[in-house]
Design brief:
- 2 copies of one chain form a homodimer.
- By secondary structure, chain A is of the alpha/beta class.
- Chain A has 2 domains: about 10-225, Alanine racemase (TIM Barrel, Alpha-Beta Barrel), CATH 3.20.20.10; about 235-350, Lyase, Ornithine Decarboxylase, Chain A, domain 1.
- The first copy, chain A, has 11 helices and 22 strands.
- In chain A, strands 1, 11, 12, 15, 16, 17, 18, 19, 20, 21 and 22 form an 11-stranded mixed beta sheet that branches. In chain A, strands 2, 3, 4, 5, 6, 7, 8, 9 and 10 form a 9-stranded parallel beta sheet that branches. In chain A, strands 13-14 form a two-stranded antiparallel sheet.
- In chain A, strand 11 (about 240-250) and strand 12 form a beta hairpin.
- The longest helix of chain A has 21 residues, at about 170-190.
- Chain A starts with a strand and ends with a strand.
- At the A-B interface, strand 11, strand 12 and helix 11 of A face strand 11, strand 12 and helix 11 of B.
Amino acid sequence: MPRLLLDKDKCLRNIEKMARKASRNSLSFRPHCKTHQSAEIASWLRDFDISSLTVSSFLMARYFARAGWEDILVAFPFQPGELDHLVELSEHCKLSILVDSPAALPFLNHIPKQVDFYVDIDTGYGRTGVRAENPELIEQIISKAAANSKLKFRGFYCHAGHSYKASGQKQRNAIHQKALYDLGGLKKQFEHHNAKVLYGDTPSCSTQKEFGTIDELTPGNFFFYDLIQYSHGACNMKDIAVAMECPVAGRYPTGERILIHGGAIHFSKESLLLNGDSIFGQLVQGTDRGWTHTSQEKYLTSISQEHGVMEQCGDLIREVNIGDKLLFLPVHSCLTANLMREYYSLDGIPIATLNS
Amino acid sequence: MPRLLLDKDKCLRNIEKMARKASRNSLSFRPHCKTHQSAEIASWLRDFDISSLTVSSFLMARYFARAGWEDILVAFPFQPGELDHLVELSEHCKLSILVDSPAALPFLNHIPKQVDFYVDIDTGYGRTGVRAENPELIEQIISKAAANSKLKFRGFYCHAGHSYKASGQKQRNAIHQKALYDLGGLKKQFEHHNAKVLYGDTPSCSTQKEFGTIDELTPGNFFFYDLIQYSHGACNMKDIAVAMECPVAGRYPTGERILIHGGAIHFSKESLLLNGDSIFGQLVQGTDRGWTHTSQEKYLTSISQEHGVMEQCGDLIREVNIGDKLLFLPVHSCLTANLMREYYSLDGIPIATLNS
């Protein structure tokens, strides 16, 4: 069976580096735990004096609350179908939610405990949030919410996810600068509310040096990183903290093809375009303890449900036998980790997640 | 939370139609259960006198064996790492495996109970299997296996998965005809072994009328079908038996955009190219009982981990409110079903799977 290996040392270094960056910039740090979805990995944050988390669903919020976390932001626009979960969670922890429309507020009229909210701001990504150019709508939300004594406006949240679509660092910088400008403007305009600003996609948090008037960073993928992050210059190959271990199930000298057990239900179907071709993972070389990036680059070139195929393997096909285990860096570690549901330390110890 | 709804009537009709087609062509029928991974759904096969299953992993084989199935083919080239599972399973059921290399055979030298094997044949897909043009290698495998009295050669297995890459029915027909020709030739050449031929990707099984010397059909996706199958002409819209039910979490009149809770960890990242754009699901209209395809076609145009976005929704945005539930046909039901791990009947009753 394919397994997802986690190099704890790499993960700890990634956490430490981001925690230091936040600290150096006098920013709070509220890591997004959607990537790993693991209470054990979240517990490693305690050593860095981190006491608040970001998650992307009430399912995750409940899981981390049960693991003892008392300050959790659910970074997804609140939906009325989650009201029961919200009520339950607000009994046990300091719960924050996102709101991006006045229409969501009536559903929160009768909550029994205080819930904080941030207005989700869209600085150009175009996924969720009130457009930064629309402070009137923000004002409407805040005014309407003020009628509910249990609902506290705390500030703004922004995920500038269009950084993932940027064609290079120059464009990423422009996206970041616009976000800082927009969020700085809103912070000033709503300073009478003592509005805080939460921000943080992993590429921006990893590559940028200035954070303007931002108060808190909320990146998530940085725990593990992956090939997408590498392609954005957000990490080095050696920072990628997870690798899929997959058994070789077939060797096909014609076409220099190797088959592994490891497909779309393990890696996910996320792909990365490399010289015009889609790839689904990159081969790394196993070492005594973990893996190392090789200069001879080989990729998973196609996957189906359980099958992974490496084509044009060259000499590798003569070095590999059925039953050998190969290691691959994932394209998108969040999706791979979600599918794998359990990780293994380099000592072979299982690390549980929400999905275990 | 997003839910995967299963219209049992549609699923039963899909099963019945394929079972009848097999019967009409005097073919055995060994449905592939990787799509649904559900003992309950497999139990519906009993009414059609089906007593043998195909699966794609030993994990699935064990699950269905525990549910009482006694004749199971693991349609993935045997890997030595699965030997313990094979030994355990062979105690409890008639187990068949795939072999496509003599190198796999020594690992099976000391199995305690009989295991049947099929030689996996590649008629042009280029994923797994011995190339049909290489009967010498088949002969090598059969000869080498003959030394193991517990290992019984039963015939050939072929998944002509390149039918999914075909640009139209003409090309699909050619792929099918070549497979029939190749497999017919091998069957004749190895008739002294009384070799049976197992075959069946869903597009071919759904659209073809002639099956030559094939003995047994093994399609899987047909239980549910999906947008990919529809795009290949393998099903009608009304045959698609599953739909994702997703709450509306945001409305953004600028850009006529709707946000749903339903992302890559629910639908999978599988996409379909439609007029040059990737889509991740197609909106259908809920009815008193299930859903119906609408002529006004709307699509999920982008997804991230938890978020699904419909852009250019037109009038729909004025009809929809936060908290409403929308229904979407999945692009690739196997991957969606695997992620959702539990389905709901139209009466709201949970249907468990291997992953529940």
